[in-house]
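Need Histidine kinase's 3D structure for a figure. Predict it.
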Amino acid sequence: MKKNINKLFPTLTILCLFCFFSALEAFPIPLTKDWKISSGKNLQSGEDDPNWIVLQSLPIPKHTLDSFSYPEDTIHSVTLLKSFIISKEEISELSTDGLSVHFPLFTNVYEVFFNGERIGQGGSVVGGKIVRNGFKRHVILPIPKTKVKEGSNEIRVVLSSDPGEELNAYASLNSTPPLIDLRSRNSEILSERSTLMLAFLYLFVGFYHFLFYFKRNQDRYNLFFGLFSIFLSAYIYFRSNAVYELELDPLLQMKLEYMIVFNVPAFFLLFLEDFFRSKIGPLSRFYRFFALGLTSLIPFSSRFICIQLLQIWQFSVLVFSVYSFYIMFQALWRKNQDSVRLFAGFFILLASAILDLLGSMQMITGLENYGLLKYGFFTFELGIVFILANRFLSVHNEAEELNRDLDLKVRERTGQLQDTLDQIRELKIQQDGDYFLTSLLLDPLNRYQIKSDLYNIEGFSRQKKQFEFKQWKKEIGGDIIVADEILLKDRKYLAFVNGDAMGKSIQGAGGALVLGVVFRSFLARTQSVSSYKSKPPELWLKECFFELQNIFESFDGSMLVSVVLGLLDVKSGILFFLNAEHPWTALYRDATASFIEDKLELRKIGITGLESKMKIKTFFMENGDSIFIGSDGRDDLLLGVDSDGTRVINEDESQFLKRIEEARGDIGMLVQGLRNFGELTDDLSILKLTYLGRPKRFVPVVRIGATEFPDAAYLGYLRDERWELAADHLENIKGTIKGEAPPTFNKELAKVYYKIGKYQESLTLLEEFISEFPEDIESMFTASLLYKRLNRYRQAVELGERILLREPEFAGNVAHLAESYLFIHKKDAVLHLLSKLEKLDPANLHAREIRIQMENPIADHRND
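Structure prediction for Histidine kinase:
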């Protein structure tokens, strides 16, 4: 037995050695070591040529590249050569699989030759210039079976780059060295399922955080994290081999990769600071602009400049990492629970990023860019998921707690709401009660139903605020109409007011109530007190206005009212009125409507300083004329809504005239026409006054007997100022008149008597004339002058004041009135009138004479 074993031992030894050496020569064949290098493109020189320089290992040392010299402004090229043995057994393996060569990275243009035949290239050189870059990772080239031979084989690699650019072939990338192996095994190098899965995952996470931001845009950290995740996903894709399927220009691909990766740490820093500090500090802002600056330079830079910018960015990332650690540790120090949950993932993420960065910078021997960042971010993402899950659970627990107590809380809340509703109802009842009581106070004041054969008065009032109190339906607002008849100097007048108090509902009603009470009180005094009855219409309106003004001034501007206040002389049809910022008064005559005012004379009652601006207006109404007075509710009509939702309010005041004409003066149809034109937005009140009398008007020419007066003889005497002859002529005519002399004749006779010094006779005629024709200011002024001549200064003042109210710019009357006041020792009134006169006529001599008179003693005529 022992003898047989000794015979088999040599045979077993030979078999083991054969298997051992077969294993040593089997594929793959490593290509990292034992290369030779020469400058330029060298495809002809044999392996023994002395121009070859031996390389111990890839990559090419810098000192070896520096030993080659090249002409200025030409590309740099080197040729690498390596020989290796392929055994017969290895060739037999190729019967079922092909052979391929793998290079981890070529830095620019490359050509690969196997046994003299080019098997692949990247980039191109034309005319000694690189026209297309060839930078590529994981170059795998198939080797034709016909070129593989038993024994010695060689592979040559020609590399080219522009001056100053990197010229090299890397020894490893992602821990994969250069080698020759079966195609099936080399193709596994390009398999990147996990890488692409992570890239897609990070892209999804980025868009998911975008959704968070759009739903709640005050949480800006979701935006920054989403951008960070999406940019990192794009960077991972550009670092994968899948990007070569796009067939981009290698230089463009490199620029896009740099532009993406420059912004990744910037967005991460913004996320950290906003997440833990809820604000962006100056350092993060600076780094963001720094990254944007580098990014903006890339599109316009050469490959050499791009690499320089990359190196600047790489050093900046190291500084950024320190600041990121500071933010995280500060959050931990402040016991931020989210920082505790994120710390492990943050540390792994930053460590993997720094290792990849140091490897790409080749600062540590043997360390390369292993692509750890994509895995490090996954651990950080787990921390984010944990935070989101914790927040979801917190919200879920709160929701469950709320649901458990929901029924009780709903009942409690319903009870609270019911209590509040009861309180509101009680307050509403109280408020409506206040409204109701106020409306009861307003109802007796807001009356204007008066019957007369000489005029007809109608009105319409609709308040914006309408309410119900118990079984009553009422309305309340600031509009009011009051009218009543009074006697002034034994002459019948219709006194009226249409007012619109400032404010809505109760505030406006308060103003209307004050206006109605004061006006009704003034009317009552006029009807019972003789001193009020003896006032002419102009002075009555003045005193009534001042009484209203004094009352409303006491409210210090918190209650204002616009009014039209007037008197209608029932016999003559003369309308005396004043307008305090109320819409203009309209006339309807002969089927045509028009305004009888053209400018604003007074501001609202309650505004101080109105006394000096007061003016009484007059208008002569004819038979069938109708006057329409209304509040601003007639104009403030809602016409609709424009495209941007703004309400369109009518601003054309003439629309009121059109509605009057369409209604043919009927107040009911007028109101309906206004409602058809637009929606009422304010209180509305309209007063219609129709004159039915046939007033007597002054005619300058009359017939006396068979002769027309004034006749030619009288006019001749006037022209020649022969006043005595004119008086005789008129007295002769008077003797021929049977009955009463015409008013025209009496007016002329009074004028002539004044000229010849028959003052009392002239005054008697003028008093009678003014009583019949109160509109004649000329006769009124002459009568006032006569009163002054006859030392009847109070009557002179009364007529002067009437003229002043109607013609405030009549300088002659102002001077005459000032002098009249002087004789009854009312110096304040004198000074006020002199000031007014000097504004009207600075060179007025009469004003100077009055001032001189004031310096001398004057008899007191106050009791005359």
